[in-house]
Amino acid sequence: SMGITPRLKLGFLVPILMAAAVCATSSSALLIDNGSTTTDTATNLEWLDLTATLGLSYADALTSTFVTVDGYRSATSLEVAQLFTNAGIGTLDNLAREVDFAGASLLLDTLGCTLTPAVCATSSNPSATGFAEWSPGTGRRALYRTDSINGGRGAATIESSFVTGADPAIGTFLVRVIPAPSTSLLILGGLAFLGA
């Protein structure tokens, strides 16, 4: 009897492997520094660096070309809290902890230090501070701050603020949604590859 040995084409596995890769990467958050923006892979949000809106009032940031042309919007306080959590900040209570140092450092590296360059370079307490929408229509803004302390401890806090004017040390958290590729599109792409 003649044995039949099934042969699988490598191309058949491409869509399956692509779908598995999407599922595997979507289960853990990753912050990717793109230069002037940061991508949070867990939320599919792209965050504009806080340094881009320094010197603008909250209202001015919302009418800037970042919003009107580039498609950004004000982040909600919940979105900023989730970003901090995804970076590795355990609690938003402004208490410096060694366990939060890596998360605070990551946020400072990706969002930018909002103090003057000289202070950011030499300070033992550089910070990234920005406004987010606390409650739409109330005029209240959430003021977030993360610090990376040279002593190896990090801290993050949130507070409600009515501050609306421009501040040279406070930016505005602006985000836009990054469409996630659907699994069906990846499978179709793999099938198209098979046909090629």
Describe this structure in words.
- This protein is α+β, with helices and mostly antiparallel strands and 196 residues long.
- It has helices spanning 10-25, 58-62, 65-68, 77-87, 101-111, 117-122, 183-195; strands at 31-33, 37-40, 45-48, 73-74, 127-133, 141-149, 153-161, 171-172, 174-177.
- Mean pLDDT is 78; it is low at 5-27.
Alpha-carbon distance between the two ends: 36 Å
Fraction of residues in β-strands: 15-25%
Give the spatial strand order of the biggest sheet.
1-2-3-9-4
* Helical residues, percent: 25-40%
Based on DSSP secondary structure assignment, what is the total number of beta strands? 9
Short summary:
With 196 residues, this protein is an alpha+beta fold. The protein is built from 7 helices and 9 strands. About 12% of the residues have low confidence.
List the defining traits of the structure above.
196 residues, alpha+beta, 5-stranded antiparallel beta sheet, 4-stranded mixed beta sheet, 9 strands
Topology summary:
Elements: H1 10-25, E1 31-33, E2 37-40, E3 45-48, H2 58-62, H3 65-68, E4 73-74, H4 77-87, H5 101-111, H6 117-122, E5 127-133, E6 141-149, E7 153-161, E8 171-172, E9 174-177, H7 183-195
Parallel strand pairs: 5-8
Antiparallel strand pairs: 1-2, 2-3, 3-9, 4-9, 5-6, 6-7
